[in-house]
C-alpha cells in the first residue's frame, strides 16, 4: 500500500483506454450478484456510478447526508457540460478537448486520464439525452452549444442555466429504477465517519444516522467515495453549506494519499461579499461571459463616485470604460480561463478601480448583447428601421431565453435588475482540483477504495476549465469506474459477504465514538461557526488568490493553534445520540482544521505559480503565473502521519509525450 503506481497503460495515447478495457479482468454477471459495493455521495459522480454498477448486477449501498440524492450540490452547476461532438462544425475534436483541458490546467494533469475523459465526453451526452435531459436545441434540431473560458470552440451543452439540476434528475431517475429493483439500498441522511480496512483492503464504513444519531456498520467488497470538493475550508465559498471533506479526509487518515490540496479554483463570476452576516456565496454561471462584457471605469475618480453612489455605471460613456480582459487578452477576451480572469479582477480592484462599496467588484454588462441580439431579431422579423425601444425589447427576450433564471436569481439576491444595470461580480472560492490521489483505475492508495468526481485529483491539473466538472463526474460514474472496478472485484468472487463482526469494525467504531465524545466534551467557550469563520479568514487572507512564503508559513502556525483551541474550547450543544446539526458541523470543521494546514503546507512547498496556485514570488513581469517545470512537474501526494506538519510527500512525475510544455498564453 502507498506506492504511486499510476497504472497508465502502455501504447499510443489514443489507444490506451481501449487497450486497457480489452485487457483488464471482468466479473461474470452471475458473480456480480454476490458482490457488494458502497458508494458514498450521490451527486452526479456517485449517482451515475451507483446506477451503472447496479444495472451491471452489483449490490449497491448508497450514502448521502442529504434527505435525497436530488439535493446533492451537483444541482448548483448552472452553465453546462463539455463534450467534443463538434455539432457546430467549428473544428472541435477529442484531441482538442484534451489539449484545452491540459493547457487550462497549466500542465499539471495526467495526460492519459484527460484523454480518456475527452474520449468519453461524447458518450455522456448520448446517455443523458436518452434519459430525457432537456438540453437546449438550435433551429435545425441539433443540440445547441455555447463557449466557456479557455477554448476557441463551442462545446458546452446546456439546459438553460439549470444544467446540473437536469443532469442530476436524469441520474436520479436511473438510481430510482435500481432502488425499485432492489439493487440499490439507499441510506439517506447518513454520514460516513470512517473507512474500515480489513487485511489492508477497504471493506466497509462506519456511518452515523443523522436523524437518530445511531452509529452503524456497513460492509462491502469495495468502497467508492464520490463526495465532492473541500472549498468550504474557506468558510465562504460557492459550495452548499453542507459540503465537506469528511469522507475523503477519513480515508486519508486510513492511508489514502491526498494530492495537490493547494490547487483550489477561484471563480471570477460570483456575487460579491456583502457583509459578515453571510454564510455562503452565490455563483453566477460562467456561461454569462459568452455575452456579458467585464469592465471597470478607466478613471479612479469615476470608480470612487460609483462607490459613493454619486455616479451610475449606465452614465459612464463607452470610452470611459476599461474592458480589461478584452484589452489584455484579445484572442480570448472575456472567455479566458477562470484563474486568469480572477487574478485580473483582483488586480483592477486592488489598484482602486472596484465598483461596489467595499471596492471589491467589477461589472458584467449585457447592454451590448441586448443591442446586438435585438438588431438581429428585428431584421429577422423584417423590421429594418426598428427604434431603440423595440431593439431593446427584442434583445432582452433573447437574453432572457438564454439566461433568464440566472438573471432572476441575481435580482432576488442583489435587488437590482441586471437587464437595466450591469451585474457586479467578484472572484470567490469554487472548485477544488486537489483531492485523493487515484491511479488510472480511479483507485486510491488503499486497495478497494475508489474515488471519483471532484473528490479525486485526477483530471484538471492546477485549474479546471468551465463545464468540465459535470463532464468528469459523469465520465467517471457512467463509463470509467464500472469497467475498472471489475478488475479489482474479480478477485472477490469467492470471498462471500464481508462480516461486520470483526475486530477491524470494532476498532473503527470505537475510534468514531471516541472522536464524537471528544467533540462533545469541549469547554463550550465558542461555537463551531466561530472556529470555521476564523479558519476561513486565515485561508482567504494567506492561502487565497495570491500566496507568498511568509503568509503560508504563518498560516500553518495559525491553523495549528486554532485547531488546538477548537478541540479544547468548542461548544457543541445537544446530545450525540440524536439529531444534532451542531455535532455534524463540528466533525466537518475538525477535518477542515487539519486539511487547512496541509493545504498551506502544500502551497508552501510548491515554489512556482501554476493555475489556481499563484505565488507572488513567481510571476512574469506582466503578472502572469510563472511555472517551474524542471522542479515541480509532478503531482504532490501527501501521506498521513498523525499531524499535517508530519505529512510525507510522495511525487508522481508527470510525463508530457503528446503535448508540448509551454507558457500558457490567451493573448
TrEMBL record:
Per UniProt, which keywords does this protein have?
Answer: Flavoprotein, Oxidoreductase
For whether the record's keyword set contains Oxidoreductase, the answer is yes
Q: Name all FAD-dependent oxidoreductase 2 FAD-binding domain ranges.
A: 36-470
Fumarate reductase/succinate dehydrogenase flavoprotein-like C-terminal domain span: 532-666
Per UniProt, what is one Pfam family of this protein?
Answer: FAD_binding_2
Cite the Gene3D superfamilies for this sequence: FAD/NAD(P)-binding domain, Fumarate reductase/succinate dehydrogenase flavoprotein-like, C-terminal domain, Succinate dehydrogenase/fumarate reductase flavoprotein, catalytic domain
Q: Which cofactors, by name?
A: FAD
PANTHER family the record matches: SUCCINATE DEHYDROGENASE 2 FLAVOPROTEIN SUBUNIT, SUCCINATE DEHYDROGENASE FLAVOPROTEIN SUBUNIT
- The name on file for this protein is Fumarate reductase/succinate dehydrogenase flavoprotein subunit
Q: Which organism is it from?
A: Pricia mediterranea
Amino acid at each position: 500500500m502507498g506506492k504511486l503506481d499510476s497504472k497508465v497503460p502502455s501504447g499510443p495515447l489514443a489507444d490506451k483506454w481501449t487497450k486497457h478495457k480489452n485487457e483488464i479482468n471482468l466479473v461474470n454477471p452471475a458473480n456480480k450478484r454476490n458482490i457488494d459495493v458502497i458508494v458514498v455521495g450521490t451527486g452526479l459522480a456517485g449517482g451515475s456510478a451507483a446506477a451503472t454498477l447496479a444495472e451491471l448486477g452489483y449490490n449497491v449501498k448508497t450514502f448521502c447526508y442529504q434527505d435525497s440524492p436530488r439535493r446533492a450540490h451537483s444541482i448548483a452547476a448552472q452553465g453546462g457540460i463539455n463534450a467534443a461532438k463538434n455539432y457546430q462544425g467549428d473544428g472541435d475534436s477529442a484531441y482538442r478537448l484534451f489539449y484545452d483541458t491540459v493547457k487550462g490546467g497549466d500542465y499539471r494533469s495526467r495526460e492519459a486520464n484527460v484523454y480518456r475523459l475527452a474520449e468519453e465526453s461524447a458518450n455522456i451526452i448520448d446517455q443523458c439525452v436518452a434519459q430525457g435531459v432537456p438540453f437546449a436545441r438550435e433551429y435545425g434540431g441539433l443540440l445547441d452549444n455555447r463557449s466557456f473560458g479557455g477554448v476557441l470552440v463551442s462545446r458546452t451543452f446546456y439546459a438553460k442555466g439549470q444544467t446540473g439540476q437536469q443532469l442530476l434528475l436524469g441520474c436520479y431517475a436511473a438510481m430510482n429504477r435500481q432502488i425499485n429493483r432492489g439493487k440499490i439500498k439507499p441510506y439517506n441522511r447518513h454520514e460516513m465517519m470512517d473507512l474500515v480496512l480489513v487485511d489492508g483492503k477497504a471493506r466497509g464504513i462506519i456511518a452515523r444516522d443523522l436523524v437518530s444519531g445511531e452509529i452503524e456498520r456497513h460492509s462491502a467488497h469495495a468502497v467508492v467515495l464520490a463526495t465532492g470538493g473541500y472549498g468550504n475550508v474557506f468558510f465562504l465559498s460557492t459550495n452548499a453549506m453542507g459540503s465537506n471533506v469528511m469522507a475523503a479526509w477519513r480515508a486519508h487518515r486510513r492511508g489514502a494519499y491526498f494530492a495537490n490540496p493547494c490547487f483550489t479554483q477561484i471563480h471570477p463570476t460570483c456575487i460579491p461579499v456583502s457583509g459578515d452576516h453571510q454564510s455562503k456565496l452565490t455563483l453566477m454561471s460562467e456561461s454569462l461571459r459568452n455575452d456579458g462584457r467585464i469592465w471597470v471605469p478607466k478613471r479612479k475618480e469615476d470608480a470612487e463616485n460609483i462607490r459613493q453612489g454619486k455616479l451610475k455605471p449606465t452614465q459612464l460613456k463607452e470610452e470611459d470604460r476599461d474592458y480589461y480582459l478584452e484589452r489584455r487578452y484579445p484572442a480570448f477576451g472575456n472567455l479566458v480561463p477562470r484563474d486568469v480572469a480572477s487574478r485580473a479582477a483582483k488586480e483592477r480592484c486592488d489598484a482602486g478601480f472596484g465598483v461596489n462599496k467595499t471596492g471589491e467588484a467589477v461589472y458584467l454588462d449585457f447592454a451590448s448583447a441586448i443591442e446586438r441580439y435585438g438588431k438581429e431579431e428585428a431584421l429577422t422579423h423584417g423590421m429594418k428601421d426598428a427604434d431603440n425601444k423595440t431593439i431593446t425589447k427584442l434583445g432582452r427576450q433573447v437574453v432572457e431565453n438564454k439566461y433568464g433564471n440566472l438573471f432572476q436569481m441575481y435580482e432576488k439576491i442583489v435587488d437590482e435588475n441586471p437587464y437595466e444595470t450591469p451585474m457586479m461580480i467578484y472572484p470567490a472560492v469554487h472548485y477544488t482540483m486537489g483531492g485523493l490521489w487515484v491511479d488510472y483505475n480511479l483507485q486510491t492508495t488503499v486497495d478497494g477504495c475508489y474515488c471519483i468526481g471532484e473528490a479525486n485529483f485526477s483530471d484538471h491539473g492546477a485549474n479546471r476549465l468551465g463545464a468540465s466538472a459535470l463532464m468528469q463526474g459523469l465520465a467517471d460514474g457512467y463509463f470509467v469506474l464500472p469497467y475498472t472496478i471489475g478488475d479489482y472485484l474479480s478477485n472477490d468472487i469467492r470471498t462471500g459477504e464481508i462480516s461486520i463482526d470483526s475486530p477491524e469494525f470494532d476498532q473503527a467504531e470505537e475510534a468514531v465514538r471516541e472522536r464524537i465524545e471528544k467533540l462533545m466534551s469541549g469547554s463550550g467557550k465558542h461555537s463551531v461557526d466561530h472556529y470555521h469563520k476564523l479558519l476561513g479568514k486565515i485561508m482567504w487572507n494567506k492561502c487565497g488568490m495570491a500566496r507568498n512564503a511568509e503568509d503560508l508559513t504563518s498560516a500553518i502556525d495559525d491553523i495549528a493553534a486554532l485547531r488546538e483551541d477548537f478541540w479544547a474550547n468548542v461548544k457543541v450543544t445537544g446530545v450525540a445520540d440524536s439529531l444534532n446539526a451542531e455535532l455534524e458541523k463540528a466533525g466537518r470543521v475538525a477535518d477542515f482544521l487539519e486539511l487547512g494546514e496541509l493545504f498551506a503546507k502544500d502551497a508552501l512547498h510548491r515554489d512556482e505559480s501554476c493555475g489556481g496556485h499563484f505565488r507572488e514570488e513567481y510571476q512574469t513581469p506582466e503578472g502572469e503565473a510563472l511555472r517551474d517545470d524542471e522542479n515541480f512537474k509532478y503531482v504532490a501526494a501527501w501521506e498521513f502521519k498523525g499531524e499535517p506538519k508530519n505529512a510525507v510527500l510522495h511525487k508522481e512525475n508527470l510525463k508530457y509525450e503528446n503535448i508540448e510544455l509551454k507558457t500558457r498564453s490567451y493573448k
